[in-house]
Amino acid sequence: MARGTTVLLPAGPPLSRAGQQTAQYLGPDLWSEGTGKVGAYLGQGPLSWTLLQPDVHPQHHGVGPANRQQVQKGLGAQSPGRAESACGATGRQPGKIATRLPSKHPVSWPPSPWEPTMPLPGHLLPALVLLLAGSPGRAWTPSTCRAPGEATCNFVCDCPSCSDETQCGYHAASPALGVPFACDFEQDSCGWQDISTSGYSWLRDRAGATLEALGPRSDHTLGTDLGWYMAVGIHRGKEAAGATLRSPVLWNAAPTCELRLWYHVAAGAVAELRLELTHRAETLTLWQSSGPWGTGWQELVVTTGRIQDDFRVTFFATRNATHRGTVALDDLVFRDCGLPAPQAHCPLGHHHCQNLACVAPHQLCDGEDNCGDGSDEDAYSCRHHIATDFEMGLGLWNHLEGWARNHSTGAWHPAWPHRDHSQNSAQGFFLVSVAEPSSPAVLSSPIFQASGAHNCSLVFYYYLHGSEHGSLQLFLQTENPGSPQVSILLRRRCGELGAAWVRDRVDVQSEHPFRILLTGHTGPGGVLSLDDLILSEHCQPVPELSSPPRGLWALALQPQPSSLPPQDFCEPGHLSCGELCIPPEQHCDFQQQCEGGEDEQECGTTDFEAPAAGGWEDASVGRLQWRRLRAQESGGPGTDAGGVAAGHVLSLQRAWGQLAAEARVLTPALGPSGPRCELRVAYYFHGHPQEISCNFERDTCGWHTGHLTDAHWRRIQSHGHGYDHTTGQGYFLLLDPTDPPARGPGAHLLTQPQAPSGPQECLSFWYHLHGPQIGTLRLTVRREGEAEILLWSRTSTQGNRWHKAWTTLHHQLGSGTKYQLLFEGLRDGYHGTMALDDVAVRPGPCWAPRQCSFEDSACGFSSGGQGLWTRQANATGLASRGPHTDHTTETAQGHYMVVDTSPQALPHGQVASLTSEVHQPLAQPACLTFWYHLSLRNPGTLQVHVEEAQRYQVLSISAHGGFAWRLGSVDVQAERAWRVVFEAVAAGTEHSYIALDDLLLQDGPCPQPASCDFEAGLCGWSHMPWPGLGSYSWDWSSGATPSRYPQPPVDHTLGTEAGHFVLFETGVLGPGGRAAWLRSQPLPATEASCLRFWYHVGFPEHFYKGELRVLLSSMRGQLAVWGTSGHLRHQWLEGQVEVASAEEFQIVFEATLSGQPALGPIALDDVEYLAEQHCWLPATTQGDTLLAASVPTVVGSALLILVLLVLLGLVGRCWLQKKGGCPLQGEMAAEASGFDNIVFNADCVTLPASLTDNQ
């Protein structure tokens, strides 16, 4: 805005408090950008701003009354002279005015006799710019965002950080469009308040802390006893009581607003649950139930309808004298509740509301306030429509029989609508079917003129609830003289659609006069209602032809053919076949009762060629629906599953429903079924082919989430502990098992079918597996007509960092077969996350992988045509040679590589080679580790060679085996491409073998056995979950890496944030004795060796205690040799213990709890095992060595001697006093009142061999 700019304010009528005129200047960037949200929310009234240069007439720039750039009416009215503070704006260009004013609070101008043209004085304009845009040269960003009352808790993020939508009964997780506002009660109560007036009240609780036996065993969010929820405890009184939980004040719900929540009721716990909405002086019942209650957590979905201004939601739990127990709520979600935001321009064909919101054309005059200000439903815009809301009668519609006009006040039926659709009020009227279940209720329109090329559109709202057998049908009857009257079915809805008003629309083009019939059948216990029938402008009645309809109504009264049994031969709901009457429970039970199989027809088995579609019925109430169409009309592949173009399919199509629910299609009630019952479906996904290579910064490219599970991969932006690999601030794909609550085993991420570009392709990607209970990530490839092939997998946490993986795709180019890639996340609990980023495909093979567990394949290893090395598992127990379990999973289902060294398979002195694929050159020395298993009988020698320019041996192992896997390691330096070769040299021993598993190549030299600084990894320490301990794992992280769990800020090795350590978050444990183990490689027997380590224990309060113990594990069991428990200490502490064992053993670090669960880490760093070396003199540490047998006696004797020496010292001092008294007697009596502050430290203890032998 240049100096001296003139601002035109058109003259208008005087302003009033009720209907004032407001306007704001938006800044020049509004018009230059042309898209996105308006820079400032605009005022109401016929005023507008017009920008002119100084001393230039409007016509000189083509800016006249007809084509000025104007911003018309705003969002709301405001009292004169009042201006609200801005919520804030960021990222605007210097020198631009960038205000963001709440949509309900535009700046208002007081009454003024200003002329249409008002130049701003030059000395005032800079002040105005500075006031709105901040200091010159930078954008203004307020330190806090203060939204006005009506802009708080209105389901719209008016502030950039969405801080105006917290403590609203929900927390805004993200200001992104479409993200629901949810509360899981994990952090707080989200603003919900208990307003009960009796001892029966609501409180925030969790299963791990409750003493109520009838409460839920876990929350719904996490599925564990550590998750939080709102609960009503047991009331001990004898009188009836109620507990009331109320939301904060909420504002302006859109017509599509729905509330989803999960509730848990112990059997017989309460007499009634009720959810109410209070708006102004009226209270609406959204839902109520007196049971029966299902087991476990139950989902509840209710719609609020359009709510203007403020309202509250209240949840009631009522008990009487005979019902006692607990009720719990969790995971409340408000979805699609916000009104549309103002837009500078609308998409082509959309309607621009007076408040600058945009709505689709079909939302005009549809009986719902979609704009938010009612401008899409005003009388002038809809003057050519004919609307019947049944408030004053039936309008043009003819009530034939079976319908009654009613309202919700005093409703007695449990399925009765609690409010009408027109007014969203219990006082509003609607039509309800009162016909008997055996006869239809019929409502007829007048006869309309032929519409010709135009559409006569009918929008109507219906309510179908309470019965699976209710139905609503819409027929078209044409009035064609000389032709029989025919009723054409245009729409059919049946079954249970929920307690909500559902919108639908039909478009009619007819060359003859016609009428519309709405017929309904009410199922047992069900209710069918109609409201808001809206006819478009091309529906013109013909008064002289508006006679009662014939045909359909007469057909309903016709007697049934005599060939059928009499009407009362079978009871209602029973199927008549021959002389049998089949009850409903025997319909579709997979057992044929009728001779012709009529009872098993239309039971879901279908190719959709018959119009009945096998009994499948669309039960959608949202914007999508399922329809039976010809394949070439469905927008799909053009043929059905059998390749027939004229065949029919069930296709997903757009629908007229206003709700956000998913599209559903249902069979009739089936079963019971046997244990091997299968459902086979041929399905087709239509989409545009896109690249597999993707960094997910713009979109998901050619990847999409699978729909066969209820957990999903989501594309999210880096925030908090979640960060991408590409930039650290971009987007990536995340699988969080707690968001949304998912009960399935995992989630699928797939590509579209891809054509291979060559015989080999290299697929690389970055993955992140982190958390104490995360599960497995798998990559498979699918080809039509072939079994799914597993390419790659990882199980359990891989540390809090991104890892790169790659695998080679092998294709047969001549076959023309396409392939499909699938990432599958299989969870093992609710603690941790999986993530993917930077997927890439390039021609040619990959380098050899740096890590191989042999679970998915042989990782490219070749036996040179001999076939002596084989990949196997021992799940069946029939493997002729090899260990019973692998090393990776420690189960019989795990895979490894094995060679039979028996004389008949490999004669004495013969060699069996196992050669890797080509590894890429190494920029620095690396350590190659592997686990090997040798049979008890001498199998021979295992040799390891490296092939670079030449072949040289780096390791040779020749020893008798045992029952354990052992760790081998070699240092590798290779400046060029290289391979590793494992050779088994047979010793000629019967029943012998050599096995390999878990190869890993890491940068840096190989550490000593059981020693590790954790900078490059775990150094052979195993963190796999141990059976019986809760399936939890130690993790690997650094202080600089964002984490969702508490962790030390620095490591001990480097003393910086960049250093690494291992840790375990004990907050995931329950109050029981579950734990997590970190195990060393098997170590040889020792008489005395020293174990040194540094540990970090942190807990918030003395009530919470975590424990770290050192165990020695051998074939004889476990022996605890050291332990400590602690609270919050911001330091690393040293621990050491001398160990001895007469047989091979493992060192185990065990993390567990001795109190209530709390977020607190136990971390380890710089573990050093000094074989056959004694520990140093004991240092003062915080650890307590656990002693066995006679060791406590020695400590007790030392304590007794110490006490005697102290007493002798005191006696001597008293004797030296010349005046016969002992002046310290009173002090000693005061100081020796207890032993609370006495701590014994004995961190260096040698255990005699006799003690370990007796374990």
Automatic annotation (TrEMBL):
A Pfam family this chain is assigned to: Ldl_recept_a
Xref: CDD domains: LDLa, MAM
Keyword Cell cycle: no
Transmembrane annotation, as ranges: 1186-1211
Disulphide-bridged cysteine pairs: C346-C358, C353-C371, C588-C603
SUPFAM superfamilies: Concanavalin A-like lectins/glucanases (SSF49899), LDL receptor-like module (SSF57424)
Alphabetical list of InterPro entries matching this protein: ConA-like_dom_sf (IPR013320), LDL_receptor-like_sf (IPR036055), LDLR_class-A_CS (IPR023415), LDrepeatLR_classA_rpt (IPR002172), MAM_dom (IPR000998), MAM_domain-containing (IPR051560)
Taxonomy, superkingdom: Eukaryota
Transferase in keyword set: no
Domain MAM, residue spans: 181-339, 386-541, 604-677, 692-848, 850-1008, 1010-1177
UniProt entry keywords in alphabetical sequence: Disulfide bond, Membrane, Transmembrane, Transmembrane helix
Region (Disordered): 56-109
Designated name of the protein: Apical endosomal glycoprotein
Organism annotation: Vulpes vulpes
